[in-house]
């Protein structure tokens, strides 16, 4: 069976379990208070309606934590004061705490470098404002404080074909941003993102070495790392990462077609050894966020896809011997 057909059949089968999965969570599932992680979900992977997303996260998934990225069609750093107040009211309503602000900080062009093929400016060129991201950083800090979290997710600029001539300056910028965050008691989390200059686990090791600030940590994303051909996020890449520098984790899965092209999958349905990764987290004393970033949309709706992937995540935790 061709890989595309196989993935379609698998997706249809998983989607067909959606109603059963929904029924399972409708029984008011709960996350154990002994869970070693801050088990969470990124809110807009469920719905742009923030109240509904929090309802599903708390009452169906049984979570006590949630990661904020966008709501009501606006990024979390674009919310006005009234929307922040409303968001906080909703969080309190569902007794949810915020793991981090999943901001778009530094997901931008590096000034003076060739425009990246991953950049929106690649097709519609615009002049890069070198101060735009500085203003966004201050907004991130203000927003994180408002939501009671000390963690801000960032990137390290759109991926360049040859980042070497700019790497030292990029690291200096990340260090400067970390120093600004430190003044406000904030931790800056760099996500390894395949469209940015730190994509794989191995690249993350190099960036962490180049930016030694204690409050500069990794948002470890094995799913993103797995999109690089031949990359094995766990155990290969993970074993190289300094464990005390991991401050957050995004959880999703990846499959690879015969031509080597990667695509998303529900957690537990791809090539990533999440069972081994979770066991290693416990062994290494990791206790920060493990946040579902579904990305896979094989079910009827993003909400149903997230519901299926959360079920897979929890089943994987059970396989790892972890009570959550």
UniProtKB/TrEMBL annotation:
One term of GO molecular function: isomerase activity
Keyword presence, Isomerase: yes
Residue span, Xylose isomerase-like TIM barrel domain: 57-315
Entries under Pfam families matching the protein: AP_endonuc_2
InterPro entries: IolE/XylAMocC-like, Xyl_isomerase-like_sf, Xyl_isomerase-like_TIM-brl
Keywords of the record: Isomerase
PANTHER family registered for this protein in UniProt: HYDROXYPYRUVATE ISOMERASE, INOSOSE DEHYDRATASE
Protein name: Sugar phosphate isomerase/epimerase
Source species taxonomy: Bacteria, Pseudomonadati, Acidobacteriota, Terriglobia, Terriglobales
């Amino acid at each position: 069976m061709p890989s595309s057909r196989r993935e379609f059949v698998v997706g249809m089968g998983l989607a067909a379990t959606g109603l059963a999965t929904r029924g399972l969570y409708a029984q008011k599932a709960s996350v154990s208070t002994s869970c070693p992680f801050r088990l969470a979900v990124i809110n807009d992977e469920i719905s742009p309606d923030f109240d509904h997303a929090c309802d599903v996260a708390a009452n169906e998934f049984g979570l006590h934590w949630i990661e904020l990225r966008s709501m009501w069609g606006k990024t979390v750093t674009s919310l006005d004061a009234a929307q922040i107040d409303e968001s906080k009211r909703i969080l309190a309503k569902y007794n949810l705490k915020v793991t981090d602000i999943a901001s778009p900080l530094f997901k931008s062009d590096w000034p003076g470098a060739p425009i990246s093929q991953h950049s929106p400016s690649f097709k519609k060129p615009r002049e890069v404002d070198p101060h735009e991201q500085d203003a966004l950083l201050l907004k991130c800090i203000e927003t994180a404080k408002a939501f009671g979290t000390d963690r801000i997710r960032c990137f390290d600029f759109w991926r360049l074909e040859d980042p070497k001539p700019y790497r030292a300056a990029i690291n200096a910028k990340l260090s400067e941003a970390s120093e600004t965050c430190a003044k406000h008691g904030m931790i800056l989390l760099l996500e390894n993102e395949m469209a940015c200059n730190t994509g794989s686990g191995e690249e993350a090791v190099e960036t962490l070495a180049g930016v030694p600030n204690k409050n500069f940590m990794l948002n470890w994303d094995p799913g993103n790392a797995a999109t690089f051909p031949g990359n094995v996020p766990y155990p290969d890449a993970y074993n190289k990462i300094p464990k005390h520098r991991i401050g957050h984790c995004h959880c999703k899965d990846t499959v690879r077609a015969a031509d080597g092209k990667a695509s998303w999958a529900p957690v537990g349905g791809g090539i990533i050894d999440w069972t081994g990764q979770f066991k290693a987290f416990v062994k290494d004393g990791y206790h920060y966020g493990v946040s579902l970033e579904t990305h896979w949309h094989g079910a009827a709706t993003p909400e149903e896809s997230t519901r299926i992937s959360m079920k897979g995540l929890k089943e994987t935790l059970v396989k790892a011997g972890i009570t959550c």
